[in-house]
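Researcher: Next sequence.
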Amino acid sequence: MVSLLCLFYDQIYRHMTDFSLSQIINVSTIIFLTNLLLLVCGILYYVFRKSFPAGEVVYILLFGLLTVFCIWKAGSVERSNVHEQIVQFRGLLRGMIIIIGIAASFIVPFLYHSKGFEKHVI
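Model: Next structure:
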């Protein structure tokens, strides 16, 4: 679901801004990295829940802060020598970070507690 949301955002953003660089953020990397990152986040969530009494809260706060930090650091990325392409790439990257960060911070814990997810998916 998050991969589809990222792909949808990618297409809309590229259409609206005419951003064409696709060597780093493209369909393959979006699908592969989104799923890999969320798998790792799910494992870390489980580890946090088992390791700390308030592991869920620590996990949510940590990944919320990590998302904010990554958004801030994305502001200094220089992907091209052309200023317009730098700004466009930063916008695309920040959007992807926001989508994945929200999923990692809130959707992973939600799905952990979801009986429907456990019954129909797992």
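Model: DSSP finds five helices and no strands in the chain. The mean pLDDT is 89.
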